[in-house]
Structure formats: C-alpha cells, structure tokens
Amino acid sequence: MIFYHVNYSKGQLKIQQMAFVLVALMIFFALVSLFYFSIRVSNLEKSAVELREEEAKELVRKLAASPEFAWTATDCASCIDLDKVILLKNRKSYSGFWNLDYLAVERVYPSKQGECTRGSYPNCNSITIINKTGAFGTPAWSYVALCRHEFAKSSYVRCELGRIFAAGKGIQ
Amino acid sequence: MQQEKGYNNMACMIKTKNRKAQEEIVGFVLIIVIVSIIFMVFLGIFLRQQPSELQQESREVYQFLESSMEYTTVCAVSYEPDFSKLGELIRECYSGSVCTSGKKACIVLNQTLTEILDSSWKVGPERAVKGYEFNSTYDTNTTQEVLVTISKGECSFNRKGAEYLIPAFPGTIIISFDLCY
Q: CA-CA distance, A67 to A81, in Å (whole number)?
C-alpha cells in the first residue's frame, strides 16, 4: 500500500515537472514573439508614415499641374509659370479657391533674398499665395521648375529650380 | 535489528528521492540553458550578416531630376539667347560642343550641376543625408560611356534614388541620382 502510494506520488511529480517545463517554454516563446512583433509593427508604422508623406508630395505636384500654375508655353510636366503665380498673389477672388492654409513657391537655385512683390519680382526668393494661420505644421513640398519670360536682351524663356509648399485639408 | 534495518531503508529512500529531485532540477535548468545558447547563436549569426545594399526608388529624387533638367543654363551653343537647358547641355557635353561664350559645354555643365546639387541637398555626417552620387551615362545597345560623375559625402548601404532618361539618338542618356543615408 505504501509502495502504491509512493508510485502514485512519483507519477504526479513527473506530471507536475512536465507541466512546469511546458509553461516555462511557452512563456519563453511568448516573450520572443512579443519582441519580434513589436519590431515588425514599428517598421509597419514607419512605412505608413512614409507612404502618407509620398502621397502628400504627389498631391502638391498635382497642384503644380493645375491650370492656375501650369507652364503651357512648352511641353513641361514639372514646370510652373512664375508670372501667373505672382499675379495670383493677393488676388482676392482666389482666396478660398484651394482648401489650403498655406501655399507658397520658393526658388532653390539660384537663390535670392526676400518675399516677392510686384516691384521686386523677379529678383526675389519666394511668393506666398496663402498664409492663413501660423499653425499648419510642416507643409508638404515638391520640386518644380519655375519658368518665366525674360526680357533682358531679347525675349526668351528662363526656368529655375524651385519648390512648391502646401499645407491644409486639401493636402491631408 | 529489524527496526534498525527499517530505519536504514527509509533513510536510503529519502536520500535517493532527494538526489532524484536534484537531478530533475538540474535537467530542467540544462534544457533552459541549451535553448538559450541556441537562441543566442542564431541571434549572433543574424546580427553579424553584412547588411545588403538597400536601394529604394524615390519620387522626391525623380521630381528633383525632372525639374532640374529644365533649368536654363548660361550656355548657348547655337546663338544667344537660345540658352540650353541642363538636360540639353548634357547632350551637348556628349557631343563635345562649345558655348558661344567660349567655354566648353562640359565645364559649364559640371559647374552648374555642382551648384544645383549643393543648393538643393545639404549633406554631412551630422545630417540625415550623409552623401549623394550623381551619374550621367550615355547608353547604347553596345556601349556605355560615363559623362558626368559628381559625389559628395559618404555613401554606404542605405540609398534612395531615381533615374531620369533623356533620349539622344542612337542611344539614351541615363541620369541617376542617389541620396545616401
């Protein structure tokens, strides 16, 4: 009877040991998979943010191709008519046309100084069309070619490298 | 005597039981140690692998190339003011043309490209963009000739870039620009 009792206890002990080993292994693999998935999810978030930024840049580019900005004198998809842009500045009829808080065009090369006015154009650096509030966050931007008619010696087309910036609900 | 034998047997059984329990615990710990060692070995192999070059296509770089190729340079090959665009100047450089100012098209091209790249991309070890590489090659079915190469900073594995093509019969001018991170 004592022998039977001892055997029964031994069996229980073995089962308990096996259970502990299995529980420990499961906890170990759960920790490993938690670690792995946390890294995967953070990479996924990074990809989502990058995709949203790319999408915003494409929307800004589409804005540059709209009739209000597009350079139509030559076949150029990435060109903006800077003469049109300076005329749009301060034009009240276009104040609510784009659903944007900020819209500006800036020259990258060759860089000059100052905000453009009718008097300083084209020897200036940037043209701000819309600037509703200061709190619009980081605007999306895209590289464009800024083209205009130059009348120095004779009439010719001059294109320079620039950027178009936009921020607001129309770009989100 | 029989009682003594009985006591001796019990002591023996208890000792054996304790030893067995210790053996079981040692076995358990050994399993955990072996699994951890195997895990560490795999982790070490995984971390030691040389990172392969990661090249990503970038819309931003493509838009930069597309826009900068429209830049009006100071070089007019035929007459002033028919100034060449940057993309056209690369073609003129391949042809060995000379500007009306007397400067070679390739010299004006190199100067202009360097200035545009310096103005547009700020690179350095403390910046997000560590370096860049600009390459322009003339590619036909049979040959490939390097026209312009401009690089700045340090380029390693992580790159983001794009290619822009300019037709130049009988071949194509391939312009590639990579930002290095």
A: 10
Residue B32 touches partner A, C-beta closer than 8 Å: yes
Strand-pairing partners, residue B176, are: B135, B163
A119: part of which helix (H) or strand (E)?
none
Give B108's pLDDT tier (boundaries 50, 70, 90): very high
Tell me if A77 and B60 make a contact (CB, 8 A cut-off): no
Tens of pLDDT, residues A51-74: 887 788 888 888 888 898 999 888
- DSSP E strands in chain B: the ranges are 54-57, 131-139, 144-153, 158-168, 171-180
Q: Are A104 and A17 in contact (CB under 8 A)?
A: no
- pTM for the structure as a whole: 0.74
Closest in A61, A109, A159 to B63, CB measured: A61
Q: Give the H or E element holding residue B43.
A: helix B2-48
Q: Order of strands, edge to edge, in the sheet holding B131-139?
A: B54-57, B158-168, B171-180, B131-139, B144-153
